[in-house]
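Z., the sequence and structure:
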Amino acid sequence: MTDIQDIPDTVKELRAEVKARGIRGYSTKNKSALIEALKNNYLKTNPAPAPAPAPVPEKTAELVSETAPVETAPVKEKKKRGPNKWNQFLSEHSKKHGVLIKDAMKNREAYDAWLKEKNL
């Protein structure tokens, strides 16, 4: 079989061709599976030729110099923030009262009192 069109017609011929190509498991395959195995083997051993690369224009340097410069947006600087008041309260309250941060989150009144105490 030199071409994909030369696939044998009978299962017996197909099995002989598959055996000759060294494909395993052919004895349990039906006709359509044998044909598929031959096609896959043919495509593996005869890959399609790679497409030709696109031609490069001769005036590449001129084209590059004629393009407009790309303007980039200015990078914004991030403002540095102080510590988060809520997180600061949670940390101080949990240490001072020996409670979990989860429990300190439930105490809004203590947060309001803490803000007044700190004059925030």
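The two ends are 88 Å apart (CA to CA). The chain has a mean pLDDT of 78.

Let me know what you think.
H.
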